[in-house]
Design brief:
Blueprint: H1 3-39, H2 58-69, H3 88-94, H4 97-108, H5 121-134, H6 140-143, H7 158-169, H8 177-184, H9 188-201
């Protein structure tokens, strides 16, 4: 083989690898941008109905994708001005396993930052007692830790969490029986107290 031919082959291999990797990187960037159109830059949602997803554990993120795929959790239809209407169930079903894993790894590496919202300290103090009694076992450190498949609660948007309580009680979102039994025992005032506790605790 001539030296010039050898160099040409090396160049072709290099360019093939380069453009292949560039395409993969570009596709992932586009995928992240698609997520950010609802969940905000770096997964920090500025929309109270949409959760902050930065800082979730990889397992928690993938578990969420799985339950949406299986329709074990029903998402609301979300429409952002200038964007097409989206539903998380359909989005989750459109992702490949590799894409879901890449997104899980990416968002688990980002810092969770609490939502900018106000809370009533008096209600929050009652919520602290309720959390310790009914929720701390799984949602540790007052709901701040992304442990396994337990989502971060402290600092999450109150309207989003309120909808999740309602979905669980109406069985639109399937959760472990022990969790459902605990939530079912809560009054509307109890849930409100918990919401204020998580909002306040997120800023500590």
């Amino acid at each position: 083989m001539k030296k010039s031919q050898y160099k040409l082959i090396i160049a072709i291999v290099f360019l093939t690898c380069f453009f292949s990797n560039t395409t993969q990187a570009r596709d992932f960037v586009e995928l992240v941008k698609y997520c950010e159109s609802c969940h905000g830059l770096d997964g920090l949602s500025t929309t109270p109905d949409v959760p902050i997803i930065a800082g979730f554990s990889e397992e928690g993120f993938l578990n969420t994708i799985d339950v949406f795929r299986e329709n074990e959790r029903i998402a609301m239809e979300f429409h952002k001005p200038g964007e097409p209407e989206t539903v998380m169930n359909e989005i989750a079903q459109s992702l490949t396993d590799k894409e879901a894993e890449e997104l899980a790894k990416y968002y688990s590496g980002l810092e969770f930052k609490p939502a900018n919202q106000s809370a009533d300290p008096e209600k929050a103090s009652r919520g602290a007692i309720l959390h310790k009694k009914s929720c701390e076992r799984c949602h540790t450190n007052n709901g701040k830790d992304p442990v396994e498949d337990a989502a971060i609660l402290a600092g999450q948007w109150m309207p989003y969490l309120e909808r999740q309580f309602d979905n669980i009680l109406k069985k639109k979102r399937l959760v472990p029986k022990s969790m459902y039994r605990r939530i079912k025992k809560l009054s509307d005032q109890d849930i409100e107290a918990l919401l204020h506790f998580y909002a306040l605790e997120g800023n500590k």
